[in-house]
Each structure stands twice: as structure tokens, then as C-alpha cells.
């Protein structure tokens, strides 16, 4: 379930530092407080924080702004999942999937023929996130 902008603002303001930004440590405190993460090991919680933080920190500056937080937290779950999948498959972190990266990822769950059929729908060797989203819809 996505949050409203008002809910996001309230949560963000409660946990952000005096600089008005969220650090990984502050995000961890927010998750612990809001999700009741008491049954998670510190390692598991750290993994969740890293994944969440990477998804929210759009400019890579290791701090989350209110706008980044709202953008991420108000997205529908399917869109988030597709973006996470894209990032996972983008092995070299280039911001696009090569035909080889896409085919390798597809072949983890499908046969080579199906992977070829899907890859044949791609016009070039640089699949952007937007192209990936369109392909998955």
C-alpha cells in the first residue's frame, strides 16, 4: 500500500536529522519504529535498510530528501518492484540493460527460445528503465 504525501511528510519529519535529510542510520531508526522490526536480526535489518536506501536515494548522495522519500513511498508497489528488478539486472550499474543482461535474467526463469522472443522486441542494445517498464506492461 502506498502512503499519501501527508503521511510521508509526517514520517520523514519525525526521523530526518536537523539538516532535513535522512541518512541510512535515520532510515534504520524509522524502519525499526514503524515496522516493529524487533524480530529481525541486525544483519537482516541492515540489508533492508541498504535496499530501501538505494531505492530512495535517486541522486546517490547518501542522503534522502523529502522529495525523494515522497516519490518512493507514494509509488504503486508494482512500479517499485519493476524498478528494483531493473536495478538488480543492471549488473554493471550503467542505468540500462544490455541485451545480454536482459536475456541472462529472463533465462533464470524461462527457456532460451522465450528469452530470444522477448529480446527480439527490443530495438537496440540499451534498454532503459522506461523501455523495460513498457515491455513489462
Automatic annotation (TrEMBL):
UniProt keyword Calcium present: yes
Key words, A-Z: Calcium, Repeat
Keyword Membrane part of the UniProt annotation: no
InterPro entries xrefs: CML21-like, EF-hand-dom_pair, EF_Hand_1_Ca_BS, EF_hand_dom
SMART domains registered for this protein in UniProt: EFh
Domain EF-hand: 77-112
A single Gene Ontology CC term: organelle
Pfam families: EF-hand_7, EF-hand_8
PANTHER family in UniProt: TROPONIN (PTHR23064)
Protein name as it appears in the record: EF-hand domain-containing protein
Organism name: Sinanodonta woodiana
Amino acid at each position: 500500500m502506498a502512503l499519501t504525501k501527508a503521511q510521508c511528510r509526517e514520517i520523514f519529519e519525525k526521523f530526518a536529522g536537523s539538516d532535513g535529510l535522512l541518512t541510512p542510520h535515520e532510515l534504520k531508526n524509522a524502519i525499526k519504529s514503524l515496522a516493529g522490526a524487533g524480530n529481525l536480526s541486525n544483519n537482516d535489518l541492515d540489508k533492508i535498510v541498504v535496499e530501501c536506501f538505494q531505492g530512495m536515494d535517486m541522486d546517490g548522495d547518501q542522503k534522502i530528501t523529502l522529495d525523494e522519500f515522497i516519490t518512493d513511498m507514494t509509488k504503486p508497489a508494482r512500479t517499485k518492484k519493476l524498478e528494483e528488478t531493473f536495478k538488480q539486472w543492471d549488473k554493471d550499474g550503467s542505468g540500462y540493460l544490455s541485451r545480454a543482461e536482459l536475456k541472462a535474467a529472463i533465462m533464470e526463469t524461462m527457456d532460451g527460445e522465450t528469452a530470444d522472443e522477448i529480446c527480439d522486441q527490443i530495438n537496440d542494445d540499451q534498454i532503459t528503465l522506461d523501455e523495460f517498464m513498457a515491455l513489462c506492461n
